[in-house]
UniProtKB/TrEMBL annotation, chains A, B:
Signal peptide: none annotated. This is Zn-dependent hydrolase. Pfam families: Peptidase_M20. Keywords: Hydrolase, Metal-binding, Zinc. InterPro entries: Amidase_Cbmase, Bact_exopeptidase_dim_dom, Peptidase_M20. The lineage of its organism: Bacteria, Pseudomonadati, Pseudomonadota, Alphaproteobacteria, Rhodobacterales. GO terms for molecular function: hydrolase activity, acting on carbon-nitrogen (but not peptide) bonds, in linear amidines; metal ion binding. Zn(2+) 1 binds at residues 85, 96, 195. PANTHER family: ALLANTOATE AMIDOHYDROLASE (PTHR32494:SF5), ALLANTOATE DEIMINASE-RELATED (PTHR32494). Belongs to the peptidase M20 family.
Length: 414, 414
């Protein structure tokens, strides 16, 4: 096996690129508000395209709006790809997504500059609407188009809060929804995504970079418990059928269960809407979400079974009506063992200390897994923060992550 | 002591009056939507005024818009008053409030028709804005004006959701806010209010009418528990500071405590607003209300102390910040023992089976208690429902309640 080579990464240039991107859609001081197909998003994609051309890459937008930059391979064949997304939460930080775009461009440009043309083609990609922050049901829109999971009909049915369709929004900036199927690819050999961790595990471990074993199984379930609404004063406790009391028992049960399972199981009740939502009325119903995640498929299945059993038992015992609807269900996505090995060797060569972990968040990589092997690199996040203007990673950790990425791309493409 | 006499009550007439009032602001089939100072409210007050004049009563509106109907007493002196309110929830039912207005008018008119002039003056009153359904901070507006607890400044600062002040709204229909203090009275000897129960206790006991011992202490507290917001997937359970978990423990603790205390203690968590309220985010805060009631002053004090202790202990143990704000605090209002005795004798004379209970809801009577002895009569509510178009009381129960009221007014005024 050939020795892994790590190209020189220009720290100052990386820092300037992050700040330049962060200035487009800047919000709340250190944050960005850059939703897909907005003026800010177009400006950010165009800036990345300009940088890519300056590095001598072939640049193109695909039918859905993903931006690609390419270095041809001497031997041709399938492509080695790295990238992430440039859209943000409302507002989000400068690093979530954008860092992976910058990292892929910087790594590929540095490899090309230092080692010339690769054997296999190398491409970076800047995906659109990973977050679903403008079109709530369009999460992973760009990467789903690449793996053939978006239809022209989706362009009419996916709406933003204003009622505008994603298709009409695309069309307004020059992307033809009728041609969206053309974004699909079947010529990718491997995909590696660099991203901020979004949690505190690296910080706790005092390490700059992680190699991601798997993306967790994510299931979000909408639950409604319905009882009987009555006057808060005139209705005795002993004959109430109070969904709020049932809700509280569910919250305690599922959260305590996740604590008992321990890492990496997580369960979150993030949304709660009593109906009505009024101080002097026993609510008729409480609608809430359970977000439960585990990267191990068997453990995830058992977790969801346990939740179903808890909900059913609590509702039945309390005489509450139970309705459930699965909103999101992304099965666990294991990383490719060969890619994990390549990342490990690259980290060794770059002298970057790493640990392995599962991603508790969803990423474009799990969509890409439908057409090719994938793996991910995480960079330490200050205080584990993300989806906030406060998110921050040091330039030292970022460059360490880019070196690991560049080493792996070298092994795969050169 | 003189024998209590019960006048004849015309069942058909009472039924027609309830239906005629229910037609003004009719909503959702059997409901009404009749907010204070609206066209519907003016029409309802005017209809009651017309009925009163037809019965030979002296009719007047006071400065705030309460409608009064009077039969002079041969001996003069302080007045015996009965009444309730004509405004409704949005929508409410035909009975909450309106029944007590009809009952007072019917009882006084029947007494006058059958027994002539009383010794003491008798008046009925139709209060305005008991519910606070148009102006949320104006609950008991009419009765508060009578007891001198409304100022001309309130007319500027009390707003409806549209931003219009209660003063400008009054002025638009001919009531001068500057004269609101003129609504205050100090010439009332006793006040008796008939109202629907709004709970299921009479129905469970298979009785038509209750004599109300006391109006419960009502305290509504707004609570905010603040922890740390983080990503629902990337943040391990063991280092979360999740206010939703703390909220659930509070709900279970305070509701279980009310169950343990038993009737008449009640505790309700009716409102819950996580911040943010999003499925994939551990909330930073949960804001909620605790509505807790007990008619016994010592028991109420102990109940609130226990809640404060539970909140403090749970927040401290979980590392959550606790903020509390008391929104409403109406101390318990005991009924006058002599009026209770009079109501008991009236029920015996009328042959109406009764029980004693506390009111778990607030009523105009608790305002009137600041200037005179009070008591209340409850009429059975079907399924204990109120604040809904579905509220219903049978005409037989209603007439039984009016007979008890009329008998008590006879004893007090004749």
């Amino acid at each position: 096996m050939k020795a892994v080579k790590i190209p020189h990464i220009d720290t100052k240039k990386v820092e300037e690129m992050i700040l330049a991107l962060g200035a487009i859609g800047a919000h709340s001081g250190t944050g960005v508000w850059r939703t897909v197909y907005s003026n800010e998003w177009v400006a950010a994609q165009n800036l990345v395209a300009d940088w890519s051309r300056a590095e001598g890459l072939d640049v193109r937008f695909d039918a859905v709006g993903n931006l690609w930059g390419r270095v041809d391979g001497v031997d041709g064949g399938k492509i080695i790809v790295s990238g992430s997304h440039i859209d943000s939460q409302c507002p989000g930080g400068r690093y979530d997504g954008a860092l992976g775009v910058v990292a892929a461009l910087v790594a590929i440009a540095a490899l090309k500059a230092e080692f010339g043309s690769p054997r296999k083609p190398l491409e970076f990609v800047s995906f659109c609407e990973e977050e679903g922050s403008r079109f709530p049901t369009a999460g992973f829109w760009g990467s789903r188009a690449i793996v053939g999971r978006v239809t022209p009909q989706d362009c009419d049915t996916v709406l933003e809060a204003t009622g505008d369709s994603i298709g009409s929004t695309m069309a307004a900036i020059g992307f033809n929804p009728a041609r969206i199927a053309e974004a699909a690819r079947n010529d990718i050999e491997a995909f590696v995504e660099l991203h901020i961790e979004q949690g505190p595990i690296l910080e706790d471990a005092n390490l700059p970079v992680a190699i991601v074993d798997a993306i967790t199984h994510i299931r979000q379930t909408k639950v409604t418990l319905t009882g009987q609404s009555n006057h808060a004063g005139a209705f005795p406790m002993d004959i109430r059928c109070d969904p709020m009391a049932g809700f509280a028992e569910v919250v305690t049960s599922v959260i305590d269960h996740a604590h008992t399972l321990g890492r990496p199981a997580v369960t979150t009740i993030g949304q709660c809407i009593p109906g009505p939502n009024s101080a002097a009325i026993i609510p008729r119903s409480v609608t809430f979400t359970i977000d439960a995640r585990h990267p191990n498929p068997e453990a995830a299945a058992l977790l969801y079974q346990t939740h179903d059993r808890m909900l059913s038992e609590i509702a039945t015992r309390r005489g509450l009506t139970l309705e459930t609807q699965i909103l999101i269900d992304h099965p666990a996505c294991p990383s490719d063992p060969d890619l994990l090995s390549a990342l490990g060797r690259a980290a060794d060569s770059a002298g970057v200390a790493t640990m392995h972990m599962a991603s508790g968040a969803g990423h474009d990589a799990q969509q890409m897994a439908k057409i090719c092997p994938i793996a991910m690199i995480f960079v330490r996040s200050k205080d584990g923060r993300s989806h906030t203007p406060e998110e921050f990673s040091t330039i030292e950790d970022i460059v360490a992550g880019i070196k690991v990425l560049a080493g792996a791309l070298y092994e795969l493409a050169y």
